[in-house]
Recover the amino acids of this structure.
């Protein structure tokens, strides 16, 4: 039992939300490609705390957290990509992107698929993770990504197509 | 189906991400830092390192053996926001949600002389779940500078404390800067007769046990100097034997680990201001940190020092000091009794576009309760800013202070 379940009447407190959703936010950041998912999740909760009093709906906190995690991860990955580009232009050896996972924990059979996910354009990867890991609706995904539901549909469809092609190429090799 | 494979693969990868057990403490640190900056930008909201009020749940069905363990600090409840007048009685708000079981204690926060209120509450378990019944220790504290109050009851992520006799709940050491005299507190089972903090040098600093009438447990407190390096609390039974040692998570020893920018600023008045690369601005007196402000790197100082509130200040250790907007040559604080303290302001040496000021400012009485006026002048003596600080009388001042357990005579051993 967690205390959160005891005091779950009414609007959840910040601590309730932390207890219930911190691990999920770390995982979301990791799945989206953050090199330090804990840092992203902690920053998201800190920002949520600033925002708590202004959230109109009691259940708006989690969507807000998801959106912040997506945003922060996007910015972080962009920053890393630019840093790698600069290093490469300067003739420095490229830094291997840290996937944030303990590879040995991931079954061999998932490796090709996950590698293909990692190669997807950022928006497509976000749409897939939010859809197939968090099982969110198109509306919820759109809110998290800051795009329209139609755009979510497009990103998801393209991502699945790209994954299919990528896996087909892998099996042909 | 690729979708099913994808679900399975993402779930497998997600499971590989572990979470840091100290994550809550890190979030608290970020919240506190963010709040300092945010509060600084809002009029009538405190600029202070507000400690989040923490607490621990207590399993009522305790029947375990004597054990010496390390307790884990549990997350705090959310902070209340101030009402439009800037005054929010957090105790009243929290009691409405978590009514006391037994009496409510009133003890003194040695850092500001204002009451802290402590009470037990008893959230009911979900019907039919067979879950154990918990009680929680709630706390309400207040901040003198702008009169804010904060209260919380714990929410546990790991509520299983069976076998323990005493638990740590909170401390003013979680505030920054934690100088001066601190107080830590928590709950204890009836078998605990005495408590002491153990200092860095092994010295024992005696505490007090309170037994609120009708409450399901006792409350312990220990008051000690910040420099004592307290890391362990020891609890003894009526026979004098130690029944429990509690080591709370340590607050970080330093507010920042980022390198300091050079040079230090030395406004008149005997203080040193040191800016670190992460935006932490520390105020030091004789090498000891007596104040801190966090400036967000890359964020213009205008966000902090607004037209409505052109300065950011604090009173601590007999000084009045702070930041003021660029162009300020003199800052004055006028107390309600008419006395004026004047401080020369100097431009910040880091070229961030503000000025710094400091001056000795001993004041008898409660300057926060009385209110005061701050005025800024430029080099030509023209007034360029003014802040009328309304009186912030203490909350809960009419509540008599609680009396500790008369059976316990705290004495060093």
């Amino acid at each position: 039992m967690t205390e959160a379940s005891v005091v779950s009447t009414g609007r959840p407190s910040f601590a309730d939300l932390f207890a219930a959703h911190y691990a999920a936010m770390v995982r979301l950041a990791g799945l989206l490609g953050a090199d330090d998912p804990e840092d992203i999740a902690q920053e998201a909760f800190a920002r949520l705390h600033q925002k708590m009093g202004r959230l109109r709906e009691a259940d708006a906190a989690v969507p807000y957290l998801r959106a912040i995690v997506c945003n922060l991860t996007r910015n972080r990955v962009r920053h890393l990509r630019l840093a790698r580009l600069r290093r490469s232009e300067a003739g420095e050896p490229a830094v291997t992107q840290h996937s944030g996972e303990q590879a040995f924990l991931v079954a061999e059979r998932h490796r090709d698929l996950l590698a293909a996910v990692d190669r997807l354009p950022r928006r497509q990867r976000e749409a897939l993770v939010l859809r197939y890991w968090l099982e969110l609706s198109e509306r919820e995904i759109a809110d998290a990504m800051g795009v329209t539901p139609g755009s979510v549909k497009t990103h998801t469809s393209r991502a699945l197509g790209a994954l299919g092609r990528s896996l087909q190429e892998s099996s042909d090799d | 189906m690729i979708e099913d494979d994808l679900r399975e693969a993402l779930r497998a990868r997600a499971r590989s991400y572990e979470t840091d057990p100290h994550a809550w403490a890190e979030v608290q640190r970020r919240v506190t830092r963010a709040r300092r900056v945010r509060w600084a930008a809002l009029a009538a909201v405190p600029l202070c390192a507000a400690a989040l009020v923490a607490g621990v749940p207590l399993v009522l069905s305790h029947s375990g053996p004597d054990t010496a363990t390390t307790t884990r600090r549990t997350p705090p409840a959310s902070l209340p926001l101030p009402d439009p007048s800037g005054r929010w009685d957090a105790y009243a708000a929290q009691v409405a949600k978590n009514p006391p079981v037994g009496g409510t204690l009133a003890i003194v926060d040695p850092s500001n002389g204002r009451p802290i209120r402590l009470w037990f509450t008893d959230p009911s378990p979900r019907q039919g779940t067979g879950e154990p019944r918990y009680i929680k220790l709630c706390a309400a504290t207040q901040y003198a500078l702008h009169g804010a109050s904060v209260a919380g009851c714990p929410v546990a992520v790991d509520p299983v404390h069976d076998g323990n006799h005493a638990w740590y709940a909170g401390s003013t050491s979680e505030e920054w800067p934690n100088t001066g005299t601190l107080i830590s507190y928590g709950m204890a089972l009836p078998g605990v007769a005495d408590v002491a903090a153990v200092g860095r040098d092994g010295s024992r600093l005696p505490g007090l046990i309170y037994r609120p009438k009708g409450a399901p447990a006792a409350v312990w407190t220990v008051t000690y100097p910040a420099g004592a390096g307290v890391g362990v609390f020891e609890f003894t039974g009526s026979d004098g034997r130690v029944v429990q040692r509690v080591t709370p998570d340590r607050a970080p020893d330093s507010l920042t680990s980022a390198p300091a920018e050079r040079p230090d600023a030395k406004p008149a008045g005997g203080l040193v201001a040191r800016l670190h690369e992460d935006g932490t601005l520390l105020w030091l007196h004789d090498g000891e940190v007596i104040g801190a402000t966090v400036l967000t790197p890359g964020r213009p100082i205008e966000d902090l020092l607004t037209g409505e509130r052109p300065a950011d200040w604090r009173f601590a250790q007999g000084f009045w000091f702070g930041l003021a907007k660029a162009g300020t040559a003199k800052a004055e604080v006028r107390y309600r009794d008419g006395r004026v303290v004047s401080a020369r302001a100097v431009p910040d040496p880091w070229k961030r576009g503000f000025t710094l000021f400091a001056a000795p400012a001993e004041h008898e009485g409660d300057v926060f309760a009385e209110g005061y006026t701050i005025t800024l002048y430029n080099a030509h003596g023209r007034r360029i800013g003014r802040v009328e600080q309304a009186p912030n009388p203490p909350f809960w001042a009419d509540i008599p202070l609680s009396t500790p357990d008369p059976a316990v005579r705290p004495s060093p051993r």
User: Anything to note?
Assistant: Chain B touches chain A through 51 residues (CB under 8 Å). Residues 35-86, 155-161, 408-413 of chain B have pLDDT under 50 and may be disordered.
